[in-house]
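Quick one, T. Sequence first:
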Amino acid sequence: LVVQSNAPTLGIVAIIGGPADGSGNNGYVIAINAAATTGPGTGLTPPPGYYATTTANTFLLPLNWGSSAVFVANLSPTTAQALSVTLRAL
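Structure tokens:
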């Protein structure tokens, strides 16, 4: 799943679906064009409530959820530019 913004404004997206992780969570909140890059693979803990943040304008979330439903909600501030979300087949 690719979340992308074509403008340098903060974008926040919630992704819900798929199997639950070890703690029973199956929701992910991701911020792009954020102040810092945090989350899996970075060695930095994301802010409370977030799965990851990135200073880049694109975030890639690999999904291996089979035929599970995936829901995406745009939680960006009203001043943000539109986000695009693309689900790529592997």
